[in-house]
Design goal:
Shape: globular
Number of strands: 18
Number of helices: 21
Strand order of the largest sheet: 12-13-14-15-16-17-18
Length: 555
């Protein structure tokens, strides 16, 4: 029988085994009293010093019931340490050690994102001989707000109303049987002539297939391809690692197979999302469907706004079933409006809420993490607004569209003859009592276009499958700024300041705004199209003639 230790016993075992947490860590004290004449006082479980002489506060929890208290305790001890020791935030570390993380993961993740102190979490197991048998680093969920939809969604299609209604109940049963009540189902109805458009898209030639094979596939598709009339697009909040493993354990075969891929030391970026896919979409009960595919924000946007599928209704699990959460908000978040996909961000702000502004800066930094040509000036702008909160009154709005797929962007602009709807851009409008500042960003022609074929082969290979596959996950390419550079494009940032009707214009150059002539919106990108017609034609041919079919089709 496994011995059950008390929380104080676990604390003492950790204090005796600090080397298991981190080599070079030295114990200072246990149950260290932190007096505070300002009122924040208490006892820190463990006080230690790491190998770089940083003071390290360790908070110990052993169960879900006590884990919920940990975040409050950490805040209290942090203030006590800063006051009693006279230390800055960068001279302090906070470690949270717990045997259970179900109730702790989300508040821990929020704390990590909202604190300037180095905070780490560890899942521990204590052996019967009073040693730490397992110490595993817990990675915070890097989320943009407290409502944490997993970025991996599910999309299932149906050919009849009867199948749809049966599947709606099956989706509800599937989630709730697994103990998941924070889910949403978006019911979509196909536009008129949807099947004909899908079949037309399938006529696009496939690399590696002969003309005879393509003719056979075309005939086969017209005879057998289903007429999908409805989609159930499902998503749920990201759960803790323990919850997913508990679900997986209900199916011994799936649990065994998944365990082979993930070990206790797994730290892949998509670890939790991958566990989510296995637990929610593989373990019975699983909803029936005529066909299915992985969903993601860009795909949902494509169905609603490009292919014109109609949102019939949104069905919510009981956690989301309240009057304070609108269907519009849910749909916006599933489409990535709060930066989770790094392609889109939208929010209003004002000087009365500095905490929201700081959070907005973190979210924008995440959204623009791979586009430093915009990230540096935009975060600088937001820093200025944060500094102005106690000096000026203002309100504003920020919008970012950052698709990070230059080739596909140029194709969409050319194919639709519409630069405004598809070009990357951002704007930040700040309204003061006596003036309005508008910051905006757009692509600009930088010259020096490299040989087109060399660029394509350099980033996507000769077969173009890598380019085709890039569109299946939403089109986001982390190295796209370099691709844009090779195609003679960069990301410009500008500002217009209007004071009592008089406007002054600026361009962001060498890390500061320099006064310039008035900037015409999208003029630089428009000139790129007129001056590089041969490149644009090659891009159109690339997507419409050369590349494996990516187009309108569901499958």
């Amino acid at each position: 029988m496994t011995r059950k230790y008390t929380e104080s016993e676990i604390r003492d075992i950790i204090a005796d085994n600090l080397q298991c947490i981190e080599p070079g860590m030295v114990l200072i004290d246990t149950e260290h009293y932190l007096p505070n004449y300002k009122g924040t006082k208490g006892f820190a479980d463990i006080l230690a010093k790491d190998c770089k002489d940083h003071l390290t506060v360790i908070e110990v929890k052993k169960s879900n019931s006590t884990a919920r208290e940990a975040i409050h305790e950490v805040f209290k001890y942090l203030e006590g340490v800063k006051i009693n020791k006279g230390l800055r935030d960068d001279e302090i570390r906070l470690l949270i050690l717990s045997t259970e993380w179900d109730e702790l993961l989300i508040p821990f993740s929020s704390l990590c994102q909202n604190s300037t102190v180095n905070i780490e979490g560890y899942r521990i197991q204590v052996s019967e001989n009073r040693t730490l048998s397992s110490v595993k680093r817990v990675q915070p969920i890097m989320h943009n707000h407290e409502r944490l939809f997993c970025e991996h969604h599910m999309l299932r299609a149906y050919t009849t109303e009867q199948k749809l209604q049966q599947a709606i109940q099956e989706h509800i049963t599937s989630f709730e049987t697994k103990g998941i009540y924070d889910y949403v189902l978006v019911i979509l109805k196909a536009p008129k002539n949807h099947r004909e458009k899908e079949l037309a898209a399938m006529e696009m030639p496939y690399v590696g297939y002969s003309q005879e094979d393509r003719a056979y596939m075309s005939t086969h598709n017209h005879e057998h391809y289903p007429d999908y009339k409805f989609i159930i697009y499902s998503a749920s909040q990201l759960q803790s690692e323990d919850i997913y493993w508990d679900i997986l354990k209900k199916d011994a075969d799936i649990y065994s197979n998944v365990s082979e891929f993930f070990t206790e030391d797994s730290d892949e970026e998509d670890y939790l999302s991958d566990l989510h896919d296995y637990a929610i979409n593989s373990v019975a009960p699983v909803p029936s469907c005529d066909t299915e595919d992985i969903g993601y924000a860009a795909k949902l946007q494509n169905y609603i706004y490009n292919q014109n599928w109609t949102v019939e209704k949104i069905i919510r699990g009981k956690i989301f079933n309240n009057e304070f959460l609108s269907d519009e908000t849910i749909l916006d978040e599933l489409c990535g409006a709060r930066g989770g996909t790094r392609q889109k961000y939208l929010l209003e702000f004002d000087s009365e809420n500095i905490t929201a502004l700081k959070k907005m800066k973190r979210e924008v930094s995440y959204c623009l993490q791979d586009n430093k040509q915009w990230k540096v000036p935009v975060t600088t702008i937001l820093d200025t607004l944060i500094d102005e909160c106690d000096k000026k009154s203002f309100k504003g709005k920020i919008y970012i569209y950052n698709p990070m797929h230059t080739l596909y962007t140029l194709y969409l602009i050319a194919a639709h003859n519409n630069i405004m709807n598809w070009a990357p851009c951002f704007f930040i409008v700040v309204e003061y009592p006596d003036q309005t500042d508008v910051y905006f960003g757009e692509m600009k022609h930088t010259g020096n276009i490299q040989d087109f074929d060399i660029v394509i082969e350099k980033y996507f290979g000769k077969t173009l499958w890598d380019l085709a596959f890039s569109l299946t996950w939403g089109g986001y390419l982390p190295n796209d700024v370099q691709i844009a550079k090779d195609l003679g494009l960069g990301y410009g940032v500008y500002k217009t300041s209007n004071i009592y009707g008089k406007s002054t214009h600026y361009e962001y150059l060498d890390y500061e705004f320099t006064e310039c002539d008035e900037i015409s919106s999208m003029k630089a990108l428009t000139e790129y199209f007129t001056q590089n017609i041969s490149v644009i034609n090659r891009i159109v041919d690339l997507f419409e003639k050369d590349m494996p079919a990516k187009g309108y089709t569901f499958i």
